[in-house]
């Protein structure tokens, strides 16, 4: 169950990272409220997952999921570059997350 909570926390971290772009410096009410809700829920779920998972592993996976999600959505939604080297680096992050899951 802790791994599921951690996955959801990471997905919500992606949500608030992307949401920050839409808040326009927290000047837009609805995107700002949605972003803050994602922040609170993400941290809350991370805290619940930490009951059963090592902090280093959980935190690294949480931030890694958020990183992968933000980079992917940045490419899809905002036209961020998707160069081969950048994609290879994303692959390395994913390999690290899989490795942490397998040993953690």
TrEMBL record:
* GO BP annotations, alphabetical order: xenobiotic detoxification by transmembrane export across the plasma membrane
Q: What are the UniProt keywords, alphabetically? A: Cell membrane, Membrane, Transmembrane, Transmembrane helix, Transport
The Swiss-Prot or TrEMBL record annotates one GO molecular function as:
transmembrane transporter activity
The record's annotation in SUPFAM superfamilies points to: Multidrug resistance efflux transporter EmrE
What Gene Ontology cellular-component terms does the record carry?
plasma membrane
Report the superkingdom from the record. Bacteria
Checking InterPro entries in the record gives: EmrE-like, Small_drug/metabolite_transptr, Small_multidrug_res
The record gives the membrane topology as: Multi-pass membrane protein
Q: Please indicate if the UniProt record lists Cell membrane as a keyword.
A: yes
| Principal localisation | membrane
| Location relative to the cell | Cell membrane
| UniProt record similarity statement | Belongs to the drug/metabolite transporter (DMT) superfamily. Small multidrug resistance (SMR) (TC 2.A.7.1) family. Gdx/SugE subfamily.
Name it: Guanidinium exporter
